[in-house]
Write a structure and sequence with these properties.
Distance between the termini: 44 Å
Structural class: alpha/beta
CATH architecture: 3-Layer(aba) Sandwich
CATH superfamily: P-loop containing nucleotide triphosphate hydrolases
Bound molecules: adenosine-5'-triphosphate
Shape: globular
Strand content: 15-25%
Helix content: 25-40%
Number of strands: 10
CATH topology: Rossmann fold
Number of domains: 1
Strand order of the largest sheet: 6-7-8-3-9-10
CATH class: Alpha Beta
Number of helices: 10
Amino acid sequence: MGILAFANLSKTLPGGRTLFSSISAAIDEPESVALLAPSGHGKSTLLRILALLDTASGGEVLLESKASSGWHPQAWRKKASYVAQQSVMLPGTVADNLHTFSRLHETPFDEAEATRLMKAAGLSSMDWAKEAETLSGGEKQRVALVRSLLAKPSVLLLDEVTASLDEHSKEAVEKLLLTVGSEAKPALVWVTHDMEQARRVSTRTWFMADGAFTACETALFFRRPPTEAAERFLQRQASEAGP
Ligand SMILES: Nc1ncnc2c1ncn2[C@@H]1O[C@H](COP(=O)(O)OP(=O)(O)OP(=O)(O)O)[C@@H](O)[C@H]1O
């Protein structure tokens, strides 16, 4: 069964500018996808539409082969979970944050899994009684990801989740997401401006530019960009990254 798909999806902004038009793609297995595009070309908007946090102008989004209209938005977001660049800690302690899913859904808290994920995130020595608001940005982001993973999502929609982190936290986040859940591995969609990260973490790339959408293997995308726009994009990224 498909995990997440969109078909003939379009988004036109209130002022009339079309971000993308009639684009389609599907994730059928727990793979890792990089979503790349020049700045302002609609990456976050697409990610938010996939999490039902924004609405499309046309087309449909499907989770487990069922259109979004047939889902309760809360049930959808439990399975297709959006993670922002700067995660918000809920009031209370680290433990309170980790208990969020079990509290909301009245399910037992899986302490062993939480401990395992915290360890995988490089946070095994963290005091769970600590006020979450006092954590560093990198710690907050990792706790937020563990919090999301405890809900056992089918797909994580990652909106530049490491962009404001130092190298150490960035590595910890990548490691956590790429090694998580051997028995219930989520698919990952990474919006990133970091081309090295895209190459490291993804096996497939979705590229958007000027309303057009291309999907291909990540290795191929970087070796032989599929369109002129993709080639220009990569050249610009390389020149911005410096020698
Ligand atoms: N609800 C909205 N109303 C008006 N404009 C919007 C709305 N949502 C997004 N936009 C505009 O759409 C464009 C695309 O935004 P989006 O954040 O999706 O792009 P992006 O590719 O993620 O950009 P970046 O790489 O800079 O983060 C931007 O110009 C943004 O201002």
